[in-house]
Design goal:
- The structure is a homodimer.
- Chain A has 12 helices and 12 strands.
- Chain A is an alpha/beta fold.
- Chain A has 3 domains: 44 residues, no CATH class; 128 residues, Rossmann fold, CATH 3.40.50; 130 residues, Rossmann fold.
- A 6-stranded parallel β-sheet of chain A has the order 2-1-3-4-5-11, with helices on both faces. In chain A, strands 7-6-8-9 form a 4-stranded parallel β-sheet, sandwiched between helices.
- The radius of gyration of chain A is 26 Å and the shape is elongated.
- The termini of chain A are far apart.
- The interface between A and B is large, with 47 and 47 residues.
- Chain A binds a DNA duplex through helix 2 and helix 4.
- Chains A, B: Keywords: DNA-binding, Transcription, Transcription regulation.
- Chains A, B: It comes from Rivibacter subsaxonicus.
DNA sequence: CTGAAAGCGCTTACAG
DNA sequence: CTGAAAGCGCTTACAG
């Protein structure tokens, strides 16, 4: 007189691992192991399980997997902005590496605000992500602690730090800015301005490199520094160009902290008929799309963001799979691209 | 002689709903209901539960919730490309609406390939997303079926369709192109070219609007259509500009299907010293960043993509919460922005 | 309005 | 190498 078990579930009509196991005539956990390949299973059983899975169009339920294993197939990626092509390219590279490896990317936009970063971290860490990718190395202590306490493998993007247990892939922003400034000096410029927006940590590291190179040449002048906290854009670049030319008419070169600003500066020069580079040389940073098409084409620093994204994803993959990482602080360098504007 | 239950779990050290319930001295499911506010719970109990949750820094486990409810807090968003500012802005608007509402965004990039879209759909649907946002209305039958069968609420972006059970927020690409072409005709242009890259469905709808307007004016000439399947870019715009000027020297206006192409065209004109709009008028589409700064500034169609993203997210929120949607096919229109180039 | 129990679909020790 | 059982942390009928 056994009652048939009452069906109270909210079955979804999708086939489950139990269905696969039944069809393949093995236990669920043999099916689980066969499909994941984590432990040795008899070859014939593996074949039977795989055939059954295929026949039933079995797709594992990520939520169940995450709950049982305390680890999801998500990788959370935190970037400052979506409106800056640099970060989007980084994201694109990361996605192309992680998606085929079976991970889903959760993208969080911090808008350069520490509190937003903390909130996002709290929310994403609740998902028990398999890995974490964050931009830069400067963040609030709270955020730093959350990352460390979570135990989730984490790789830092765009900058490098040599610190035990910290993984990073990037370049030296300061060295790149130093090289670019040196190029201007070699061209004979002496009144070289640094024009920056946004003022995030990397922009300030570039300023350091700029200052250092100028001090070495004995021609640093803080009046030639324009540090504007507004978000960067071509429009801002144009405005700052005009303004500086008015205020410091003896300026002979402008180092814009990012290519979008520099492109705006170049267009403003064209509009105002200021000859570049004769009257004033112009350089940018990052080598964003369009810079090579400007009139004249923009001299800039090419940052290897595609490689940074790809390599950081690879490093994270190693970390998530418990494999050793040869170079925890990977410096991918930069390239000085000399074109017509300086 | 009851044995203490053996602890076999993989406890994570985080507090669970059971911990909260214990501290608040209620049952777990009262705690669950109090926290979610789904059903009436005594006010005092609610307060006690909330206090306990706060004290324990309780964060619900999304995986457990998803497994139990057969619905996650994910919203999957499928866009063609990450390298087109248009889609990134759409994404940004969507994120800003969805994140505060407690949803996480899963972003899938299809690269305009139907197979990639199907794969992404398969993988994302396995996560039982709470909602789905897809770009455009053209897709493979298989993809269409997957969406329908999943039962997941879905909103289509950028175009509108009046079809029962289908939700969309966008604009009429064809009407916008028609208006822009009419503007060129009114300016006196007669040899108007349509220059396109990528050739996705929306680009072809614009072509329709262009052809229609020219046929009405009796001056359609298919030799003035340049349809290049390569991805759009400023560089491509410059190349196509030069090429067309050489092959069809009597052209008096160029309608580029996107602002990035048009910007490239404008820069090429500047470089080749072709007067715009005197020798040839130039217009673009979408009003991307930088178009207002060109020399001359670009005449274009402003598409309300920020509003499209926001409204589509709102509509999806309604759908996910089982609320009625007043306008399932929401046309947000466009704006003709007349600047110096035409 | 509240609670005890069952169940979601997996993985993980444990035993053999 | 394989299986039976317990458990992950929630939500959902069901009963009161």
């Amino acid at each position: 007189m056994t009652e048939p078990p009452k069906r109270r579930g909210r079955a979804t009509g999708r086939s489950t691992l139990a269905d696969v196991a039944r069809l393949a005539e093995v236990s669920v956990n043999t099916a689980s192991r066969a499909l994941r390949g984590t432990r040795a299973v008899d070859a014939e059983l593996v074949a039977r399980v795989q055939a059954a899975a295929k026949q039933l169009r079995y797709v594992p339920d990520p939520a169940a997997r995450a709950l049982a294993s305390a680890r999801s197939s998500h990788v959370a990626v935190l970037i400052p902005l979506l409106t800056n092509a640099l970060f989007v390219e980084l994201l694109d590279a990361v996605q192309r590496k992680l998606t085929p490896a079976g991970y889903q990317t959760l993208i969080g936009v911090t808008h350069y605000r520490p509190e937003e970063e903390e909130e996002l971290l709290l929310s994403y860490l609740a998902h028990r992500p398999a890995g974490l990718l964050v931009t830069g190395v400067d963040r609030s202590d709270a955020a730093r602690r959350m990352i460390a306490d979570s135990g989730v493998p984490c790789v830092h993007l765009m900058e490098t730090v040599r610190q035990p247990g910290v993984y990073s892939v990037g370049l030296s922003q300061q060295a790149a800015a130093h090289a670019l400034t040196t190029h201007l000096l070699q061209r004979g410029c002496r009144r070289i301005a640094y024009i920056a927006g946004q003022l995030d940590p990397r922009v300030m590291q570039r300023r350091q490199g700029y200052e250092q190179a100028l001090r070495e040449a004995g021609c640093y002048d803080s009046r030639l520094e324009v540090l504007d906290p507004s978000p960067t854009s071509m429009a801002l670049g144009g405005r700052l160009f005009e303004e500086l030319l008015r205020r410091q008419p003896d300026v002979d070169a402008m180092f814009f902290c990012n290519d979008d600003l520099a492109q705006g500066g170049l267009l403003a020069a064209l509009r105002l008929q200021v000859p570049v580079p004769q009257r004033v040389a112009i350089v940018g940073f990052n080598d964003l799309s369009g810079s090579e098409l400007m009139l004249p084409p923009l001299t800039t620093i090419r940052t290897p963001r595609w490689q940074i994204g790809t390599q950081a994803a690879s490093m994270l993959l190693d970390l998530m799979h418990g494999q050793p990482v040869a170079q925890p602080a990977l410096d991918l360098g930069f390239e000085l691209v000399v074109r017509g504007s300086a």
